[in-house]
Amino acid sequence: MSKSPVPVVIVMGVSGCGKTTVAQGLAERLGWRFLEGDRFHPQANVAKMTRGIPLEDDDRVPWLQELGVAIAQARRESQTSGTGIVVACSALKQAYRDQLMLNQEPFLWLYLRGEFELLRQRLETRSDHFMPAQLLASQFAALEEPQEAITLDCGRSPQDLIADTLKFL
Ligand SMILES: Nc1ncnc2c1ncn2[C@@H]1O[C@H](COP(=O)(O)OP(=O)(O)OP(=O)(O)O)[C@@H](O)[C@H]1O
Ligand SMILES: O=C(O)[C@H](O)[C@@H](O)[C@H](O)[C@H](O)CO
ipTM of this model? Predict the structure, then answer.
């Protein structure tokens, strides 16, 4: 008898939309595993962003490769328990989402949508992260909004966003 695939939710969107906050909260609520996409960036990518230089497609290839492998690995580890996985990953372009999904059972995409000004303010006030607010415009320039995703307004509270997402699971 074939088992149903371990569920994977990818929380995506531009910097500051709340991917980490919502993905972590969702994983906690569900007792699922959380993967922080930023942890899979090569050091050179983090250094680049820290200096205020946007990543290019080529920079993101090894990152998405590493993250895709980690998701597949986490899925294998959860095969017996069926425990799901929640991932925070910007996944700004369709090609990045395709690369991440390569050879895998489908993911559920949660897109946190927000206006530039709200996100700029969030990034300006956040102090414990490498990503500078000056890169926000480049994040919007790269963004291709997903067609097949649960789309929620990231201006709402994390609690509301998590509660709404739970309705889809
Ligand atoms: N729904 C929300 N309402 C208000 N503030 C929020 C919300 N979600 C996140 N924040 C705050 O906004 C900032 C960015 O949140 P977070 O780090 O979760 O975003 P992110 O999308 O993961 O960002 P990045 O891609 O840069 O890592 C944090 O200071 C966080 O506390
Ligand atoms: O593709 C990208 O440009 C990067 O993934 C960024 O989105 C950052 O990693 C993230 O926003 C900062 O946490």
Answer: 0.97
